[in-house]
Write a sequence for this structure.
């Protein structure tokens, strides 16, 4: 039975560099995994409970280094917005976008400046809800507008502002239709044919368009991203010399399983650098190039540890039932997302031979299955033989894991732990049960007779 340690030490032992980091999830998928970044998984669960989220800081730093060619790397914090993760990214020179008042608050809390140049915080959305618009006005944040109506709304509270327009180029691509953010079925961005009208509206309101942003989906490929370059070039020339910044958006793929490949980052940068160079020659001034990754920076760093609490057979299917559900990781039920999985045997036990299993959670929902395909089709996964008390390790959960967590079935939010160069930092404590109901109020007295409630 192969046992894989994961972390910087493992990469050194295996003789793998940057590409090794990219492929590390496929090395433990379907195997036994007993530690991450030098920490025993059994000891972590014994100390902090199950389920629990782990993040390997070294992998986040490595991903930041991958993108150093881009002048500005702007993290889509919706992927993982824990304050400690944002602080770690800030140390690496990464700035952020914010899609809500809450994300603005998070960015300010870790020390991002609202008035820097280029802006360290950009508000990016397809609407202004009233709370977000108030915070944008209070902190004079730069805004990336995804709907024409936002132009007048911003001008009313921030006259004379410089703005970015998010353009829907008329096409999209992604690992799922639900992560496709371009084309006529997407709600995101200003339709490309409306750009001239929006330029007129901005000028009439006294706003100056200094930036353009395009993002067609999460998990796309180089061919489709190259089409974004062409669309950006055309739209940028419509804007003219006022343009200072172009944003390539996000969508860089993450390797979750064997057979997938990462992005050729050098080729991707070259495509965008050529677009930028052509615009600079036309406008006669420099043009700033931004990238807006989310998953790419944090996905591989994350692990969800969960204890196997039942092993049972249902017809031809063998189930491992664990104490984490889609309240902890929603991606499989949302769009059939595949996550690498491993088994960590309980102390003193050895894993059995691999067998095909279905992995499910504790929630009172038939869809609470981690091994499912898009459309809800239940599938099997080859995993080592396990027993009650063993741990299931779900990898690549650093993006859209804890941020999508909920209290469904009145389950408490799990703790989050950052593993950093031999140090363990609790970056969110496990939510006490009492905290779940602290903001609620019962209108019935607890002592009221049951008959009165009928």
């Amino acid at each position: 039975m192969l046992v894989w340690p994961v972390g910087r030490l493992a990469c050194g032992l295996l003789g793998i560099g940057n590409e090794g980091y990219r492929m590390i999830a496929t090395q433990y998928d379907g195997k036994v995994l007993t530690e991450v970044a030098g920490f025993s998984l059994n000891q972590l669960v014994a100390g902090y409970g199950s389920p629990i989220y782990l993040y390997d800081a070294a992998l986040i730093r490595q991903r930041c280094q991958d993108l150093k060619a881009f002048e500005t790397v702007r993290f889509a914090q919706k992927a993982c917005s824990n304050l400690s993760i944002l602080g770690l990214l800030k140390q690496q020179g990464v700035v952020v976008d914010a899609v809500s008042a809450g994300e603005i608050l998070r960015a300010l809390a870790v020390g991002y400046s609202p008035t820097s140049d280029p802006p360290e915080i950009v508000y990016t959305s397809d609407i202004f809800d009233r709370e977000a618009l108030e915070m944008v006005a209070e902190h004079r944040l730069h805004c990336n507008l995804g709907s024409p109506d936002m132009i007048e709304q911003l001008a009313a509270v921030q006259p004379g502002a410089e703005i970015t327009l998010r353009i829907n180029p008329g096409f999209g691509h992604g690992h799922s239709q639900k992560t496709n953010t371009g084309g006529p079925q997407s709600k995101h961005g200003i339709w490309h044919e409306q750009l001239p009208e929006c330029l007129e509206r901005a000028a009439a309101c006294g706003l100056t368009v200094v930036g353009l942003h395009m993002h067609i989906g999460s998990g796309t490929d180089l061919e489709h991203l190259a089409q974004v370059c062409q669309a950006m070039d055309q739209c940028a020339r419509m804007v003219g010399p006022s343009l200072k910044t172009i944003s390539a958006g996000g969508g860089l793929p993450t390797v979750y399983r064997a057979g997938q490949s990462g992005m050729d980052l050098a080729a991707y940068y070259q495509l965008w650098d050529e677009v930028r160079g052509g615009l600079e020659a036309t406008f006669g001034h420099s043009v700033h190039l931004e990238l807006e990754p989310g998953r790419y920076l944090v996905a591989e760093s994350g692990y969800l540890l969960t204890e196997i609490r039942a092993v049972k057979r249902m017809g031809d299917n063998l189930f491992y039932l664990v104490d984490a559900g889609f309240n902890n990781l929603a991606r499989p039920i949302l769009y059939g997302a595949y996550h690498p999985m491993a088994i960590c045997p309980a102390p003193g036990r050895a894993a059995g031979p691999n067998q095909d299993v279905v992995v499910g959670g504790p929630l009172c929902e038939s869809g609470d299955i981690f091994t499912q395909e898009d459309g809800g089709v239940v599938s099997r996964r080859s995993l080592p033989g396990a027993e009650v008390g063993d741990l299931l390790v779900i990898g690549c959960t650093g993006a859209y894991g804890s941020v999508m967590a909920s209290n469904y079935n009145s389950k408490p939010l799990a703790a989050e732990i950052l593993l950093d160069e031999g140090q363990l930092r609790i970056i969110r404590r496990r939510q006490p049960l009492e905290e779940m109901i602290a903001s609620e109020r019962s209108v019935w007295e607890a002592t009221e007779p049951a008959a009165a409630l009928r």
